[in-house]
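Subject: for your reference before the review

Hello V.,

The reviewers asked for a structural picture of the protein, and I figured it would be easier to keep everything in one thread rather than splitting it across files. Below is the amino acid sequence we used in the manuscript, unchanged from the supplementary table.
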Amino acid sequence: MRLSQFFLPTLKENPSEAQIVSHRLMLRAGMIRQQAAGIYSWLPLGFRVLKKIEQVVREEQDRFGCQEILMPTIQPADLWRESGRYDDYGKEMLRIRDRSDRDMLYGPTNEEMVTDIFRSSVKSYKQLPQLLYHIQWKFRDEVRPRFGVMRGREFLMKDAYSFDIDYESARRSYNKFFVCYLSTFARLGLKAVPVKADTGPIGGDLSHEFQILAETGESQVYVDPRLLDLDTEARQLGPDDDLAAFVDRVTGLYAAADEMHDPAKCPVPEGELQTRRGIEVGHIFYFGTKYSTPMNATVAGPDGTPRPVEMGSYGIGVSRLAGAIIEASHDEAGIIWPDAVAPFDVGLINLKPGDAACDAAAQDLYQRFHNAGLDPLYDDRDERAGAKFAEMDLIGLPWQVVIGPRGAANGVAEIKRRATGEKIELPLDAVVARIKG
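And here is what came back from the structure prediction:
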């Protein structure tokens, strides 16, 4: 993509309405635009990041044996009346009526709908377990939407649901998602800590939330330092490994958000306990038969007797992650995208468009990047060098490659790694290999 043709409405000044780093930088970098309170359009740069995050989440769900479906955003209210949640959920639920005067709602979550799908098709314990997920837009009418995509009313979410015959099987499914989440966040370049959590309106008696560590995080998190290296180990595990032993080891180490932290019960010595800031980006729940019993989602057990299935639900805030990654990875100049979710792999800067040697060298590298499977953003605009550098730093691509008259004449380019600021000069023929490596 050539920057002269790319829709990138960046801002030079910080928007007055943005209170946190990610909101400021997403607006300034031309990633999003607000359409109403807590509701955003995703512009090309932001949409590329959103799809990259979504794909990593999808690949990890698939790796652990989950199957993707797609449920609608609009749900019939009768399903929620069956579960007993329709009147309990509160004003966060957007309730509507269709032209036939039927009560409908814009889904804030999907336990009822997926239970309905399950009960209509699965009749025997031999068809279990079932792990189903989808990635879909949700709506919760927050009383005070704020902080951009971090606490909006409309958001993209991955929610998954497990169905098992008994508690032991349900815990195996829970463990799969526990490990899958740690692996997912590690792939996204994030340090995630699982902490025991309140189950809230979802219900149940077992729940963990995943806090990614960021200096600008919204919560205080107290962590046994041994927890901080286990996400890398999770990347090496698969669904057939001994996940229970790993989960037991992780949950045996102390971690608590501020509202759950009790210094008197903390087993970690005060001098060793780490106090960090965190942002919740994922939440997993085991809630047994909370939905299957009232909604009659039963299967025939080994003895032929119908029994309600044991269930869990597992959410990741996909759009929230875009903001959370920025909170965890930025500097004074702008965003620093991890390689896995960067909107482009490399920013190619031509310092003197119109100069024959610069144009030829830049065009040659642009084509080489494409041939090597890299996705470049080529700044071919006739702008000041300082403005080009500032914009590339703002949008945060992992690599910058600079071609100027002197470099073009000598057959070299300057390479900058955005995360470290390190700069080196390389022969043009060595640039692609350096970035790929």
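For the response letter, the relevant points are probably these. The two ends are 22 Å apart (CA to CA). The chain has twelve helices and 23 strands.

Happy to draft the paragraph if you're swamped.

O.
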